[in-house]
Structures are given as C-alpha cells and as structure tokens.
C-alpha cells in the first residue's frame, strides 16, 4: 500500500502536467452583419445572431459549453485614505443563455482535431431586465421601474472611441456598462482533483442602444431636486430707490429629445416655452429680454452601492465622496440677442386672481400695492444640439445614472433706471431617448415566434459583487 500511493500521486501529477501542456482549443465568435444599424450595434428587440467556431489540435475532453449574452456594470471609486484604496463593484444585470446539447448528434464529449465545430446562437435584445436584477431597497416604485429598463452601453473600454456610433465623451473612466457574447469551455475533473478546469473563456463585445417605446414621466423624473424651472426676482431702480416690481420667469416642461435610430445626419432639436410675468409696484414699463444663452449639462452618477433614490447633485453622500461619485460637463448650444417682443397688459385683477402666479403658482400680495395691472409674455426658444453630437439616452440603473439639463441664462434690460440689466438662470431637466426609425423593422415580443422561447433561457443574474 505504501508503494502504490507514491505511484498514484505520480500518475496524477503526470496527467496534470500533460493536460497543462496540451494546447487550448481555439474559439472564434462571428457575428452576423446587422442589417439596419452600424456594425456590432443593436437596439431593442434586435436579434444578435452568429456562430461560435471551435477547433482543437488534439483530442480534447469537454464537459460543458456555455454561450451567454451578458450585460455588466462596473464602478470604481477611489478613497482618499492613507492606503489610497479603491472601492469596486461589478453587477451582472443580464444573462441570457443559448442552450447547447452535447452527445452523438451535436457536440461530442471529446473534440477531435481537423474538424471545426460550428455552434449557431441567437439572442434577442430585451426591453426590460429580469426582476431579480434589482433586488435592493428603493424609495419608490418609479425607481424600481427605471432600474429594470435596459441601460445603454456606456463607456465600454473594449469598444474604443473609433467604433462608437455616438459622440458622447463625457466620461471619467470610473464606471462602465458593457454587453458581450461570452463562450466558456470547461473539461471534466482530473483524477484526484475534484474541481473541473476551465479550458477557455472568451467574449465579443457589442454596442446596445435601447429605444424607448413611449415617454412616461413616472419612469424617469422630469424634475429633480437640483433643477428648477421658475425664478422670482425683484427689480429695483437703484440703490435706496423704490422697487419696480417682481419679474417671474418660468418654463414649461421640455419635450424629450428623440434621437432616431439608426442615426441620421439631421440635428437633434426640441423647444421650450418661456413664460414671463411682470407685477409692477409703480407705473413702470416691463423689462425687455436682451439676451438668451443655453448650455447642455451632462451629468453621470455612479456608486458601488445601489442607489435607493434618484441621484442628485444635492445628495449629501455625494458631497463626501465616500460611496458616491459623479462627473459633469457642459456644452454651449444656444446664444442669441433678442429683439423687442410684445407684452400683454392685464387689468382689473380680482383678489383671487391676484394671488395666482404662472401656472397656478402663489405670489406675494405685497407686490400689488393697490395696483390692478400686470404684464405677461410668452416666447418659444429653440434648443438644437450640435450636428455631430448624439448623446446616449437618459437612464437610471442600480449603479449608474445619466441625466441631462438645460442651463438657460437670461438677461433683461430695464429702461430708464440706474440698474440697466438684470439676469436670471433656470436649470431645466431634459430627457434624451432613442426612437426606432420607421425603416427599422424591430422584432417585438408580440411578433416573436415560438422558437424564441426555445432559443434563449433567461438566467437569474447574480447579485452585484463589491470589493474594498
């Protein structure tokens, strides 16, 4: 018995050495050409089809073949401590499996050289994620619905800037969302070693830009705690002079910007309505809008701990930078001088109407001072993004969010006063979404055939993993 044990250990060692020196299989992932969009770029309900080609140089035992389509979010936050440690988190929020059978009629248990094995696969880009993807505490049901929307590819380092169909460069390199077709080959356990050995693990990245079927304010909040669409300011004639009155500036909700996919060369644009009201304290003419300028603010929020509420620049945890991170950039999109516009004078305002501002907002009674007149005006301002700027959609996921706002700066001219100009700034939330082009015949769930339920198995994604 004593002499057999060393010989047994020697055989296992030789078997292990031989298996280590054996060449690994070669795996190639080929994607079929996308008919409608750019290469390797897909949107909601698109079929991601292709073939996995496996070749070996020698007989190779094979226990399992896994072909999956995965969506992964990664976040990294550097902590300013003496050790300069990082907090990282990875979440596999989507995992679709292509069934692969092994046996005599398909892939054998032992792969033979000189015979490439071709395994076709088909995945359909879903509109929503499995409910298990968002299993953390949240503050409201709307956020749960937002987290279950399929997020777009975001700053995937494996895709490279040259292959991106969007020109969105507002990035810090601290957070990524990537999609990939992944192939894993594993062989049976070696005698004396219980754990099976992974032969190869390879993946091919793709761009996913989901479209929105409809716009619902309940899915993405249009007004956050760090945005404001109304300002009130008292206009004065100068130092120690009586006030002229109150100028109320308010904007209506901006319609979402819909970017057509596949992308065209047209400019992306929308418009906002600017409502003005002037409540004079004395017999003074209303001010005139002198200049209007707007900037697009792009904000990205990320955290290794799932967000329990919609992110905001007013978040206290964001200020300390411990478990929250954010970065922003601004792009000028509009600036022009305004000509004279017509104010409409209203008189004989009743007590009930006097206490109503724009759109039903309250207003101070002290401004009237016995006056029963006020002025209103309305202006429509175009919002046009640069022709070559195609931002990614607004989204909120468990770890990463992208939001937009229009920072509108207005300057007014107050005639016949020592204070010649007055200015105000309004920060208006904006939602960007992708809409399918009419020429793009997407595959909807209602139109999918019965084979789709066989082609893909939806796996419950694992919980996110965090490392400190």
From TrEMBL:
The domain of life for this entry's organism is: Eukaryota
One Pfam family hit: Arrestin_N
Domain spans labelled Arrestin-like N-terminal:
28-189
InterPro entries membership: Arrestin-like_C, Arrestin-like_N, Bul1-like
| Listed name of the protein | Arrestin-like N-terminal domain-containing protein
Record organism: Aspergillus tamarii
């Amino acid at each position: 018995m004593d002499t057999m044990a060393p010989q047994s250990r020697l055989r296992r060692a030789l078997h292990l050495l031989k298996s280590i020196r054996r060449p690994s299989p070669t795996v190639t992932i080929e994607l079929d050409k996308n008919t409608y969009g750019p290469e390797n770029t897909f949107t909601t309900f698109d079929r991601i089809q292709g073939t996995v080609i496996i070749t070996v140089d020698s007989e190779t035992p094979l226990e399992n073949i896994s072909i999956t389509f995965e969506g992964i979010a990664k976040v990294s936050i550097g902590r300013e401590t003496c050790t300069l440690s990082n907090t990282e988190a990875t979440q596999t929020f989507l995992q679709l499996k292509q069934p692969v059978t092994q046996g005599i009629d398909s892939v054998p248990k032992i792969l033979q050289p000189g015979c490439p094995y071709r395994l076709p696969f088909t995945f359909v880009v879903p509109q929503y994620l499995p409910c298990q993807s968002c299993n953390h505490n949240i503050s409201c049901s709307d956020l749960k619905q937002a987290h279950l929307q399929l997020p777009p590819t975001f700053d995937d380092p494996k895709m490279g800037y040259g292959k991106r169909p969007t020109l969105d460069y507002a990035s810090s390199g601290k957070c990524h969302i990537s999609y990939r077709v992944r192939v894993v080959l594993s062989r049976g356990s070696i005698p004396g070693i219980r754990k099976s050995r992974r032969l190869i693990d390879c993946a091919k990245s793709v761009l996913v830009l989901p479209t929105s079927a409809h716009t619902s304010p309940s899915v993405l909040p249009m007004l956050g705690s760090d945005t404001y669409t109304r300002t009130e300011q008292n206009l004065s004639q100068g130092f120690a002079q009586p006030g002229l009155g109150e100028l109320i500036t308010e904007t209506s909700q901006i319609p979402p910007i819909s970017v057509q996919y596949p992308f065209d060369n047209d400019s992306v644009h929308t418009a906002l309505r600017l409502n003005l009201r002037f409540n004079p304290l004395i017999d003074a003419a209303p001010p005139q809008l002198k200049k209007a300028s707007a900037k697009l603010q792009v904000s990205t929020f990320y955290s290794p701990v799932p967000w329990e509420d919609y992110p905001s620049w007013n978040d206290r945890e964001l200020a300390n930078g411990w478990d929250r991170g954010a970065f922003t950039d601004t792009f000028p999109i509009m600036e022009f001088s305004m000509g004279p516009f017509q104010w409409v004078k209203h008189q004989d305002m009743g007590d009930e109407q006097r206490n109503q501002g724009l759109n039903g907002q309250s207003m101070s009674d002290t401004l009237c001072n016995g006056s029963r007149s006020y002025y209103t005006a309305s202006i429509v301002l175009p919002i046009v993004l640069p022709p070559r700027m195609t931002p990614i959609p607004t989204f909120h996921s468990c770890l990463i969010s992208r939001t937009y706002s229009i920072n509108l700066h207005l300057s007014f001219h107050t005639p016949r006063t020592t204070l010649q100009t007055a200015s105000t700034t309004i920060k208006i939330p904006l939602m960007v979404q992708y809409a399918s082009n009419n020429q793009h015949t997407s595959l909807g769930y209602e139109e999918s055939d019965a084979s789709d339920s066989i082609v893909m198995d939806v796996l419950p994604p694992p919980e996110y993993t965090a490392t400190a």
